[in-house]
UniProtKB/TrEMBL annotation:
Gene Ontology MF term list: 16S rRNA (adenine(1518)-N(6)/adenine(1519)-N(6))-dimethyltransferase activity; RNA binding
Main location: cytoplasm
Residue span, Ribosomal RNA adenine methylase transferase N-terminal domain: 20-190
The family this protein is said to belong to: Belongs to the class I-like SAM-binding methyltransferase superfamily. rRNA adenine N(6)-methyltransferase family. RsmA subfamily.
Keywords per UniProt: Cytoplasm, Methyltransferase, RNA-binding, rRNA processing, S-adenosyl-L-methionine, Transferase
Keyword Metal-binding: no
Listed name of the protein: Ribosomal RNA small subunit methyltransferase A
One Pfam family cited in the UniProt record for this chain: RrnaAD
Summary of the function given for this chain in its UniProt record: Specifically dimethylates two adjacent adenosines (A1518 and A1519) in the loop of a conserved hairpin near the 3'-end of 16S rRNA in the 30S particle. May play a critical role in biogenesis of 30S subunits.
Binding site residues for S-adenosyl-L-methionine: 13, 15, 41, 62, 86, 105
Gene name tied to this protein: rsmA
Amino acid sequence: MEKVKPKKHLGQHFLTDLSIAEKIAKAVTGHGGVKKVLEIGPGMGVLTDFLLLEDWDLYLVDIDKESIAYLHQKYPSLGSKIIDGDYLKEDFKNIMNGPYVVAGNFPYNISSQIFFKVLEERDQVTEVVCMLQKEVAQRIASPKGNKDYGILSVLLQAFYDIEYLFTVPPGVFNPPPKVNSGVIRLKRNQVEKLDCNEKLFFRVVKQGFSTRRKTLRNAVKSMGISEELKADTLLDKRAEQLGVEEFIYLTNKIEESWNQ
Ligand SMILES: C[S@@+](CC[C@H](N)C(=O)[O-])C[C@H]1O[C@@H](n2cnc3c(N)ncnc32)[C@H](O)[C@@H]1O
């Protein structure tokens, strides 16, 4: 089979080190007793080969027609489980029809968008095992107070337990990316629903980090909060100093202040 030519605009950096592919595949645990695994961006299947050695019910999605043709030739038995499409646009709630795990060596240019979609489907996605740009992986796993801590850290940590697993150097890809890569695992926690208005929680977190260097008082003042809440000492802090629980507290306070 003729190899797929790497396309930069699709974030195609093909992993060439089989031992790393094996390590990533073995990090998938099927959290929550789940058997269905969706691999995002299988490319030429280096990770797929190792996922197929395990007993997963495997689905693949890739946006690249050349990769899709390659995958159909390589894995004829997967048939319609090879999905020719854009992960960000396809309706996986219906395609997967139940809980599933997401795995992949993500296209780095859209990894944040992939996580926002995972958050939308958090009731179905029980686990994510993925490789992405090291800085983004570290940010997602970072605890509060750390300079890397940001919007995705709070939102993902609200619903997932996150582990940074290992770092991968550029030299094991063709072509090599300019950055180091990191592999992380997220496992859905026990929280079914946050103890606050979840839609507002997402807004408050985004708004909180909108003026990173300023206090939260400054960041959330445009949300129309009461004088009483403006005086709350929590608002002396900056967003990166707040954990999930404190953001929940703040969300409830903002909602209360609107209802006063
Ligand atoms: C970093 S490469 C990984 C390829 C392969 N898994 C490997 O490890 O060698 C990213 C893959 O994601 C695919 N991709 C890019 N954007 C995508 C999207 N929106 N939806 C699905 N796949 C996408 C690319 O075509 C490419 O195959």
